[in-house]
Write a structure and sequence with these properties.
- The protein is an alpha+beta fold and 77 residues long.
- The chain is 19% helix and 39% strand.
- Strand 2 and strand 3 form a beta hairpin.
- The longest helix has 15 residues.
- It is elongated.
- The two termini are 24 Å apart.
Length: 77
């Protein structure tokens, strides 16, 4: 449900700015985080051996968040 709400708001914002409703390009970012609250699912990731979690986001070129995914650092991208 939230995904549809976010997409509708992004489309409305793009229209308001006079842009095409659908994006022509997207930006993907990833970040590892070693700090985690106790009790959270965590893992040790990749070559850097970061203990914690990873965050991955997908935005359009205007910086509007389209998707976000948080997972243990030992889970592959």
């Amino acid at each position: 449900m939230w995904e549809r709400v976010v997409q509708a708001l992004a489309r409305r914002d793009r229209e308001r700015q006079g842009r095409y409703v659908s994006s022509s390009a997207l930006v993907m970012g990833s970040q590892s985080d070693e700090d985690g609250a106790k009790g959270e699912v965590r893992g040790e990731g990749g070559a850097r051996r970061v203990k914690g979690r990873k965050r991955q986001i997908l935005t359009d070129t205007g910086g509007r968040l389209l998707k976000a995914y948080v997972h243990p650092a030992n889970e592959h991208d």
